[in-house]
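anyone else get weird line breaks when pasting these?? whatever heres mine. first is seq + tokens for prot A
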Amino acid sequence: MSRPRLFQRILRRAAEHRWLPDGRLLEFYPPFLVMRIKVLEVSPQWRKVRIRLPLNAISRNPGGVMFGGYQAALADPIAALACARVFPGYSTWTRSMQIDFEIGGSSDLELRFEFPPDLEARIGGELARDGRSTPSFEYGYFLADGRRCTRIVNTVAIRPRGYSKATTPPAPEQGVD
């Protein structure tokens, strides 16, 4: 068995048996491990998430600011992961994502995501009524001085477990904090 597959199996087992908190598991996810992210906060069921994305020699583009691809790679799964925790028993994945690079990411960046209670209630209603929902979340990256530099709008597909067009495995049955 190759090392990457073994590492993925270890991470999967750690998640199933809750050996590590969600934030540490995210830091050890291979693409994010290479990016050297630091999870600053993950509230219960992912209703609030803060992650530092460091600006370094690898993440800096020729213009001296953070590569957009680095930002996109980290921002992509966050809303879907949050939906999987808040609504276990459904398959979730990113349906689309829009990124607006408002100003250059000239320092370490902090991704800030919040799951608004009113949106959670709306999604719950749609799931109860239609069995599916496709909400959009707005969040962003912030510079060290607190200014937002990147605006993200991420649309998540929330579908019944076993949905034929699902591209990711479903969330665990039990709620994961």
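and prot B, same format (seq, then tokens)
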Amino acid sequence: MSALIRRFSRSMAAGLTAAMLVAPAFALDTVKFMAPGSVGGGYDQTARVLGKAMIEANTAKAVTFENKGGAGGTLGLAQFANSTKGDPNALLVVGAIMVAGIEQNKPQISLKDVTPIARLFTEYNVIAVRKDSPYKTLDDLIKDFKEKPTGVTFGGGSKGSIDHIGIAELAGKLDVPVNKVNYIATGGGGEIVAQTLGGQIKVLTGGYAELGQYIKAGQIRVLAIGAPERVPGIDAPTLKESGYDVIIGNWRGVYGAANLTAEQRKEVTDAVVAASKSKVWQDNIKTNAWTESVLTGDDFGKFVDDEHVRLRAMLVKVGLL
């Protein structure tokens, strides 16, 4: 009997060990994402795809999402920083638009008040029009813009965003005064498309991921993309190859809460990086024409510091600061 009990105990121990090996080792509990923009916009889309990827990669048990738009994302940043201190299960989606928003609005709370985790990708802006627009090519648009600048309404994200800066920089290359650029700031996503289809906006600019469904449906037609070279899956010339030396792109990444321990920060970073290797994330990289550019920890923090310098200079150059 004793031998039977010993064999049973050994079998139980072996079974438990095997079960522990195959059980998902969740790094985080329920991850609470703050997307500091409207539903359907770039911040929101990044949060929801990363949330799915973390579930698939078994680095989070569950995910929730909150949207808080306004002031280039700085309102969402403030709410996140104040409500999540020390919480390793909180993530804030950030990007170049937020850096520009901080430079313009000078909020009391900045990215110095939260913890850099990882840059994930860069998304280049398309310049597009509704399907029945008289602008069939980029040259058609440029010709009209140079002749009657204020008659061409451009639409994109918030004032001083990468969208706005990019159009202002393009105007500078065409010797069009910045104060003649007729730019309509929107919450992005569905709002900008609705205004374009309704005729209030003649030309829209934004990331392909936000506009892809409308482009594929034939409602929106791409004239050019602000990438350094052509992007697979997007049938449009770059601004550079069309003769305009302008690159318009927005990187995105995530920050964690303030006051994380070194161990917590590593756990959060490892969880996000593991998610970026999942199938659902990689599928979205291709579908959304994102350019992967993972950078973590202090290196990411240094990159963001450099972005403050770069974008501040650009805002001054184009007359927005």
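btw re prot B: Residues 28-123+250-317 form a domain with the D-Maltodextrin-Binding Protein; domain 2 fold (CATH 3.40.190.150). The chain has two domains: 28-123+250-317, 124-225.
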